[in-house]
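help with this.
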Amino acid sequence: MKDAEIKTAIEQGKTALGVELGSTRIKAVLIGPDHAPIASGAFDWENRLENGIWTYRLEDVWTGVQAAYREMALQVKEKYGTALKRPGAMGFSAMMHGYLAFDGDGEQLAEFRTWRNTVTEAEAAELTELFRFNIPQRWSIAHLYRAIRNGEEHVGRIAYLTTLAGYVHWKLTGERVLGVGEASGMFPIDSGTKDFDARMVHQFDGLLEQRGLPWRLGDILPKVLVAGDPAGVLTEEGARLLDPSGELEPGVPLCPPEGDAGTGMTATNSVSVRTGNVSAGTSIFAMAVLEKELSKVYPEIDMVTTPAGLPVAMVHCNTCTSDLDAWVKLFGQLLQAAGTELPKWKLYDLLYFQALEGEADCGGVLSYNYYSGEPVTGLEEGRPLLVRNPESRLNLPNFMRAQLYAAMATLKIGMDILFDQEHVVLSRLYGHGGLFKTKGVGQRLMAGALNVPVAVMETAGEGGPWGMALLAMYRKEREQDETLESYLEQKVFRDAAGDCVEPKPEDTAGFGRYIERYRTGLAVEQAAVESLR
């Protein structure tokens, strides 16, 4: 679209806004009627480790959301010469899972406990056995049960339990709702009813009866909605909270809030059966939309849903690029100390392309990128490690390849369960997130590691916020009985550009040798956890 056409679309409310609160960045993306991004804004933030809990403060949530929105709105003014007063629709997403509890007056009762915390092992195991359904440690219900078992004072006063996306949506609209994909990270979903599983809710209420609590689970959980459902409108208070300048008008319709897994599926057109995607940033997870239920419960595999409610097998790993980013930062400091400097993107490209020059098995160099615990490999805590034998061939290409391999190694362990034991078939995986920004590097190595073709769309860099904007536009523009799968396939991605990389046999073989050493060396990582306090 030409700038004049975009200006008209903005003024006529034919846009949609998506905002996603990721682990390290809050980003706002505005799209036009052709679904292409027309403006964006961002704010960097970091989680805090307070009293042994990974958390974010809620005042930082609004500082970041307002900053991202302000930058996006300013870009609209500067580029198109008009003010963004009323988007046609909007939606908010955030990192999945976590624990946000509020009392009847809307006051926060405990610190926000994020997905990164791995402190609920006993509770998750007990609930998994009770439900006969895998409950990961980071799910909201595991954190709630831990708080109950620990006798935390606030538990009896809970009136509303939600996630970060649900919290932001609630404050902007007054509606206590969640999209089904995000809800599936709080409590198991029945894909038939597209709601919280009634049998399991009843089972959990049985546990509550033993504790004498004044509420039942259904009293405090959000209402579950599917993609396209009305989810409220922006209130006057919400408009001022999002845009303190006063330009944003209330009344904008919102779509159901979603998690970063759901927006990743949407942004990569991976919402139909036999499709899948890999999101690789601070954390890494892969999603596979299933044709049938898994044959049994696997602690390494989460069962969630698409934003439309289809069952999805998810392999989630807590750490992906954090250690890699730390090493890149170190190399940048070395350049500065030497009196030179490279732009951040150029430094990343330089080091990523070095990885392609490395030996297929990294020459014996081994890296563990664990910043926190990793349930897939049974570690309660993490210690980043670089390990090698004296005869290992340590050079920059092998080092960088080992760093990239480490970012996807734990994912490989989980995905092997789906491929080898459940015989899940995927025609290809769609990649998005920071690991894929350097063209052709992360994509090629991921294809080799998983032995599956990996496609990256030109829009992959927009990621979750763009996917959230698409869900908002679907809420606004969907025709009667038009499914999300059809909408994306026919109206968004029909002419989408991108490329697909087939796995190279030498990469697959080399990664196979690397992962074999990696599995054996997990004992070294465990010893580091026990020894380095």
